[in-house]
Amino acid sequence: MPLIPLKLQPGMYRNGTEFDQSNRWRDGSLIRWSEGSMRPVGGWSQFTTTSVNAAPRGMHGWRANDDSNNIAVGTYNKLYYISSSGNLTDITPVGLTAGREDAAQNTGYGGGYYDIGTYSTPRQPTSTYLPATTWALDNYGEYLVACSPDDGKLYEWQLNTSNPAAVISNAPVNNKSLIVTEERFVFALGAGGNPRKVQWCDREDNTLWTPAATNEAGDLELQTSGSIQAATRVRGRTIIITDTDAHLATYQGPPYVYGFERVGSACGTDSPKSLVSVDQFAFWMGNKGFFMFDGSVPKELNCDVSDYIFRDINTNQISKVYGVHNSRYSEIWWFYPSEDSVENNRYVSYDYKDNIWMFGTLSRTSAIDTGILRFPVWTTADGYLYFHEYGFNHEGDSTFIESGPISMGNGDQIMKVNNLIPDELSQGQVTATFKTRFYPNDTERSYGPYTMANPTSVRFSGRQVRVRYDSQVNNDFRVGSMRIEAKPGGSR
Fold it and tell me: I need a surface site. Which of 335, 352, 401, 411 has the fewest CB within 10 A?
């Protein structure tokens, strides 16, 4: 009997119809392709034994001058310091204005435009969108700097656990965000309540904000119709993303200090924490697509799963999307809330080295990459921190991959399958299930799951088949190109 290889190209494809997804992987979770083979995403282990008070919406890791490791986490109303041993300290600034744990539409007084609609009638189409509160966190030397957009002040914490973070003297207020540039200026973004304004302090002095001939403080209002959402460093420059376009800030020295250039349009984001930098590149999730700044201009990525992701996402909670670089595997991960969830419960990831897209189920609200600590640290909505890529214990979360339809014959004949020839690094670590149809809209029949043997005896027939692999063990399995032994079985 001929052997039909079940060899599909790496990555998931979930655009268009099920038939469009033929001969591709279309569904799965906690699976990646690395070094040419399919394998599980690494597991996780709890890092902190004490929870912060709510879902973390901002996270930053840095090293102090004594080489100690430090992590800061912000929630909608608190700011915390976590030591390398996992101890939590509340460093919330005195008088911090609390924000929102969830995004909301402001349909109350002042939430819409004057004289629109009748008194006491909700004004959903014209109401103001109030995003979930996310923190901008960075380090200015060894000190932490922070800004919550609902509070608007710029804060600094000087590594003393006896004292909370304190307001930076003379800094602008009513800010949306902040970033520390590679030249060691603090950028206040959306400064003074102006959503397009960038204001910066003097070099090496974050308490001097008034421009003069003797310093390099300054400000500039971006020429945009948008509102600044986020910024990050990209090898010697700073990219600023609004909800409509992208701008690049380049240090020029006195007297202008910084030059600003719009480098992209129709590439904005409503997710302040979706922006991730990788050397001279930056990646972010936009409102209907994924973008990459390639060092010159932003480009929309050709995403194999965008159709599914943007139909699946809860757009009312899109401000909670959180991006992180998983540098060990050259991946960018974005956590997002699915359509039926208020909290982040799904992820989509992009392997930028091999141009592979993946998605799955995982509830995480903020994250930092490895480097500060030996493993990446990601957070759960209940306020705990976890080491990731740590062993292969997924705590009961499903690890599986499932294909789209694969034609077994020439399309006219029914094929009868008797055996599966497995291709695993260690046989028996995954099970296989087959789902067959005789016609594209026919009722699907399921066979299995089969535990692997060499060969594995299976009995099913059909014109097309979908295959699913599941792992029920916490092992670092490898799956290659399985083959099925099939022969024509007439027509139907």
Answer: 411
